[in-house]
Design brief:
The chain is of the alpha+beta class. Helices cover 24% and strands 11% of the residues. The strands form 2 sheets. Strands 1-4 form a two-stranded antiparallel ribbon. Strands 2-3 form a two-stranded antiparallel ribbon. The protein is globular, with a radius of gyration of 12 Å.
């Protein structure tokens, strides 16, 4: 089992989770985060830190859906290990559903 970031994170990018990760397995896109499943040690400390519940185990129904996305982008986006401010529009977007198709950006973020 591993943990994955779902589309709930898109356009929000709260980074409370990266600060507690003991193995630094988060990677930053322009408007979302992903977890590298091969680096994740399944400790679960990130899951309760996400204020919008965007992190789930890959065994969760929505987790399987986002496992491929997390794997793909974790290999090309920069690593992020420090907390940053959420995106300016986070409050507006945090409760929207099914954001991937309309709002996902494949562009990398800044990382650390």
């Amino acid at each position: 089992m591993t943990f994955v970031v779902t589309d709930i994170c898109i356009k929000c990018k709260y980074t409370d989770c990266v600060e507690v990760c003991p193995v630094d397995c988060f990677y930053e896109g322009e408007n979302t985060l992903v977890i590298h499943p091969d680096e994740c040690i399944d400790c679960g400390v990130c899951e309760p830190e996400c204020p919008i519940e965007a992190i789930v185990p890959d065994s969760h129904p929505s987790g399987q859906e986002y496992l491929e996305m997390n794997t793909k982008y974790a290999s090309i986006w920069p690593n992020i290990t420090r907390k940053k401010s959420p995106m300016p529009e986070a409050e507006k977007f945090k409760s929207l559903k099914n954001k991937f198709k309309e709002w996902f950006s494949p562009n990398p973020g800044e990382g650390d």
